[in-house]
Amino acid sequence: MDKNQQLEPYRKSHGEELLTTNQGVRVSNTDDSLKAGNRGPTLMEDFHFREKLTHFDHERIPERVVHARGFGVHGYFQVYESMAEFTKAKFLQDPSVKTPVFVRFSTVVGSRGSADTVRDVRGFATKFYTEEGNYDLVGNNIPVFFIQDAIKFPDVVHAIKPEPHNEIPQASAAHDTFWDFVVNTPETAHMIMWLLSDRAIPRSYRMMEGFGVNTFRFVNQQGKARFVKFHWKPLLGVHSLVWDEAQKLAGKDPDYHRRDLWDAINMGSYPEYELGVQMIEEEEEFNFDFDILDPTKIWPEEMIPVKRIGKMTLDGNVDNFFAETEQVAFHPGHVVPGIDFSNDPLLQGRLFSYLDTQLIRLGGPNFHEIPINRPVAPIHNNQRDGYHRMTIDRSSVSYSPNSLQGNAPTPATEAEGGYVHYEEKVEGKKVRQRSESFQDHFSQATLFWNSMSTAEKQHIIEAFHFEVGSVMDQQIKQWVVDMFNNVDGQLAVQIAAGVGATPPANPKSSGSAASSPTVSQENTIKTAGTRKVAILLENGYNHQEVSQVMEALTAAGVHSEIISKNLGMLTSVDGQQLEVGKNYVTTGSIKYDALYIPGGQQSINTLVMQGEALHFINETFKHAKTIGATNEGIDLLMTSAIQGVAMAGADTQAQVITEMGVVTIRNATDMKDFAKEFIHAIAQHRHWIRQNKKQMIPA
């Protein structure tokens, strides 16, 4: 019997059969977990939910099913002022206390070997090693999620993972099974808008916002509770790559994000994030036109302001990637007194799933004894044995209550810091239903669209063209157009134009001009600090110009690197030298935030003859980055594809000219004014005016 014949009894194709559990019991609903009332907590007796999630959690050995590719760093957190009014969590009380943290950034879909810069959701998980035990704030860089109920989590991940027959594509949503899931699951609409926006291709982990996604509770010493959502606000602002740049980086430097973070910390440019909270009083729970427990909805910051309560500084790289980054285990159920849960149905499922996942990934129930997971608070309990047990327990007593050791360890009272769950009244029939308040799937997707700048909207349209254009099934493409007609009719028309589908016969008006300006990256912090500038040089450069500009960049916290055709030392026109950091083979414009071309006639004469140098300029311009040129350096711009823009500074006498993010000065020896304007332009991140003048952008 050949191998095919041996395998035949195990092959199975699903047709029109009725859905069952693995025990053969027919399932009546696989979209909603069993709850106490349609807004109540998920019940543990839901055997279908537990079986479905358990099987899903154990599908990969040994890498994580999701968030497999990650990078971790150490740091600390300090609260700005006591939060006792809102929560009794001890680490949020004393501004003088530095709470150690470990943060793991990650992509969701790809395997451990995938690229950093793929279009994807990014994980932003923080472990606080507090005096009261470990607290894990497990979030993403997008504030909403694809689904409302955790029972659908296996479905969305199965759909977005590579197609099962050929394991293609890796780390991408641009394929049939994912978009088939989307068009059959309208609750995904809001998340899709975020996923296809610039948020899904961050410039750096250091410039990436984080969100707790789910709704939690703060509980103070008096027992008063408030609903809360968590935010991490990067002090460098929220910035992104452009799609063409992200794709090229995936080939040129697939480790781009982890390298960027590693290098920044090694150079002392420590990433900083402010912890913010949105809070809603319990009596205001139903005062909004969205359900505050719905994980596919944001709480608009204009409506519910973010209170910034502390700052996290990341200042330490790991010593061993496997021992720390790979073995760290996060769980939303790792909370401390003062932080509690809500009935958010996605959160309720995560409270089961994360712990269950660690049992197989890390070899059993003792993963808390791995050094990176050990709390700084002492551990005292009667749990014993199991795989990989490290503690050597000397007592013969491992049960409660007991007399032989005076009933120790003894449960702590609330006054002694014992965790007491918030007393929420729960009642309702056991049902597999979703609350009616969860049924609006499009209004916040429209809100997001309305909040985008012109450039951001164009990027979303182009993302649809790539993602949906990669789908093979024509009917799915059409369904995508029809679905997003519910978000915005003109968006649907433009999607259709790019994917070969029929535009909607009646493009729908959004019906609302409501927007949330805070979700647009155009309204973020803009600073040149920690940005990277490439300087194109050859022998015969003007050392005075280069040194003046480099000194100004360094003073502004901007890093610069000399790029040339060959590695080694370059000699200026007056005999001084600089070392080349990278050549064209080992780097590219996509790895820098800006470009500077200094004068020096011999240097420029050589660069003019180098196609790599001209490509560097053209690509930098295409990606809307700042370009600076001084004196003869302007002549190099004049030979490139952007000569029409460079013309503005071609004949100007000792005056700084800025045109579409191209900063130039001619016939000048003092670079002070140029450097000031160049640094200001770098801080803008991109110059989207070029996008509106495409005839000037090189292909």
TrEMBL record:
<dbReference type="InterPro" id="IPR010582">
    <property type="entry name" value="Catalase_immune_responsive"/>
</dbReference>
<feature type="region of interest" description="Disordered">
    <location>
        <begin position="502"/>
        <end position="524"/>
    </location>
</feature>
<dbReference type="GO" id="GO:0020037">
    <property type="term" value="F:heme binding"/>
</dbReference>
<feature type="compositionally biased region" description="Polar residues">
    <location>
        <begin position="398"/>
        <end position="410"/>
    </location>
</feature>
<feature type="binding site">
    <location>
        <position position="361"/>
    </location>
    <ligand>
        <name>heme</name>
    </ligand>
</feature>
<feature type="active site">
    <location>
        <position position="67"/>
    </location>
</feature>
<dbReference type="GO" id="GO:0005829">
    <property type="term" value="C:cytosol"/>
</dbReference>
<feature type="compositionally biased region" description="Polar residues">
    <location>
        <begin position="19"/>
        <end position="31"/>
    </location>
</feature>
<dbReference type="InterPro" id="IPR018028">
    <property type="entry name" value="Catalase"/>
</dbReference>
<dbReference type="InterPro" id="IPR041399">
    <property type="entry name" value="Catalase_large_C"/>
</dbReference>
<dbReference type="InterPro" id="IPR020835">
    <property type="entry name" value="Catalase_sf"/>
</dbReference>
<dbReference type="GO" id="GO:0004096">
    <property type="term" value="F:catalase activity"/>
</dbReference>
<dbReference type="GO" id="GO:0046872">
    <property type="term" value="F:metal ion binding"/>
</dbReference>
<dbReference type="InterPro" id="IPR011614">
    <property type="entry name" value="Catalase_core"/>
</dbReference>
<keyword id="KW-0560">Oxidoreductase</keyword>
<feature type="binding site">
    <location>
        <position position="350"/>
    </location>
    <ligand>
        <name>heme</name>
    </ligand>
</feature>
<keyword id="KW-0349">Heme</keyword>
<feature type="region of interest" description="Disordered">
    <location>
        <begin position="398"/>
        <end position="417"/>
    </location>
</feature>
<feature type="cross-link" description="3'-histidyl-3-tyrosine (His-Tyr)">
    <location>
        <begin position="331"/>
        <end position="354"/>
    </location>
</feature>
<comment type="function">
    <text>Decomposes hydrogen peroxide into water and oxygen; serves to protect cells from the toxic effects of hydrogen peroxide.</text>
</comment>
<dbReference type="Pfam" id="PF18011">
    <property type="entry name" value="Catalase_C"/>
</dbReference>
<dbReference type="Pfam" id="PF00199">
    <property type="entry name" value="Catalase"/>
</dbReference>
<dbReference type="GO" id="GO:0006979">
    <property type="term" value="P:response to oxidative stress"/>
</dbReference>
<dbReference type="Pfam" id="PF06628">
    <property type="entry name" value="Catalase-rel"/>
</dbReference>
<dbReference type="InterPro" id="IPR043156">
    <property type="entry name" value="Catalase_clade2_helical"/>
</dbReference>
<dbReference type="InterPro" id="IPR024708">
    <property type="entry name" value="Catalase_AS"/>
</dbReference>
<feature type="active site">
    <location>
        <position position="140"/>
    </location>
</feature>
<protein>
    <recommendedName>
        <fullName>Catalase</fullName>
        <ecNumber>1.11.1.6</ecNumber>
    </recommendedName>
</protein>
<feature type="compositionally biased region" description="Basic and acidic residues">
    <location>
        <begin position="1"/>
        <end position="17"/>
    </location>
</feature>
<keyword id="KW-0408">Iron</keyword>
<feature type="binding site">
    <location>
        <position position="104"/>
    </location>
    <ligand>
        <name>heme</name>
    </ligand>
</feature>
<keyword id="KW-0575">Peroxidase</keyword>
<feature type="compositionally biased region" description="Low complexity">
    <location>
        <begin position="507"/>
        <end position="520"/>
    </location>
</feature>
<dbReference type="GO" id="GO:0042744">
    <property type="term" value="P:hydrogen peroxide catabolic process"/>
</dbReference>
<dbReference type="InterPro" id="IPR029062">
    <property type="entry name" value="Class_I_gatase-like"/>
</dbReference>
<feature type="binding site" description="axial binding residue">
    <location>
        <position position="354"/>
    </location>
    <ligand>
        <name>heme</name>
    </ligand>
</feature>
<keyword id="KW-0376">Hydrogen peroxide</keyword>
<dbReference type="InterPro" id="IPR002226">
    <property type="entry name" value="Catalase_haem_BS"/>
</dbReference>
<dbReference type="InterPro" id="IPR024712">
    <property type="entry name" value="Catalase_clade2"/>
</dbReference>
<feature type="region of interest" description="Disordered">
    <location>
        <begin position="1"/>
        <end position="39"/>
    </location>
</feature>
<feature type="binding site">
    <location>
        <position position="64"/>
    </location>
    <ligand>
        <name>heme</name>
    </ligand>
</feature>
<comment type="similarity">
    <text>Belongs to the catalase family. HPII subfamily.</text>
</comment>
